[in-house]
Write a structure and sequence with these properties.
The chain has about 160 residues and is mainly β. The protein has a domain of about 70 residues. The protein is built from 1 helix and 12 strands, in the order αββββββββββββ. The strands form 5 sheets. A 3-stranded antiparallel sheet has the order 6-5-7, with no helix packed on it. Strands 10-12-11 form a 3-stranded antiparallel sheet, with no helix packed on it. Strands 1-2 form a two-stranded antiparallel sheet. A hairpin with a 6-residue loop joins β5 and β6.
Length: about 160
């Protein structure tokens, strides 16, 4: 190999390696329960993305459904993101107050959750964020048996 070709190969190698760590910005990766996302990204509606975009949505099994998608759990198939209007055994619109607009609260209604103006304290759906449960009535944010969401409870969580 000639010295000129060797020098060009060394120069090209140096140029290719001198740009630092790869960036995943602007790159879409598909994800699901078996295929995770690159570091610093979160699975949302089957695609990886930045978790700090301020997206509103619900945790749905191993993924995240960003609004307007809802989480469907029919107790047969794995939880999955669906569009509004789909019939499902358990349909989650919200999993905490952060998913609701203005003064609305995330409320359990049967197996489903929805954003409403008023909700009884023990049906208020909460996430781990502070201050989502009424401090005097039902201050504890507890997992509901056989459900993917948590509700405010007067009793300590089990």
């Amino acid at each position: 190999m000639s010295k000129i070709v060797a020098c060009w190969l060394v120069a090209l190698s140096w140029a290719a390696c001198s740009y630092g760590s790869p960036s995943f910005d602007g790159v879409e990766f598909h994800c699901d329960a078996r295929h995770g996302c690159p570091p610093g990204q979160k699975c949302s509606d089957g695609l990886c993305g930045s978790p700090d975009l301020g997206l509103v949505g619900v945790v749905c099994g191993e993924t995240f459904c960003s609004a307007p998608s809802l989480c469907c759990d029919d107790f047969i198939n794995p939880p999955r993101c669906v569009q509004p209007g789909i019939s499902c055994a358990q349909l989650l619109e919200c999993d905490g107050k952060e998913d609701c607009e203005g003064n609305e609260t995330c409320c359990a209604s049967g197996n489903d959750t929805e954003c409403v103006a008023t909700c009884s304290a023990n049906r208020t759906v909460c996430s781990l964020a502070e201050g989502q449960c009424p401090s005097g009535e039902a201050p504890n944010c507890c997992r509901v048996t056989s459900s993917m969401y948590k509700e405010c409870s007067a009793s300590p969580c089990r």
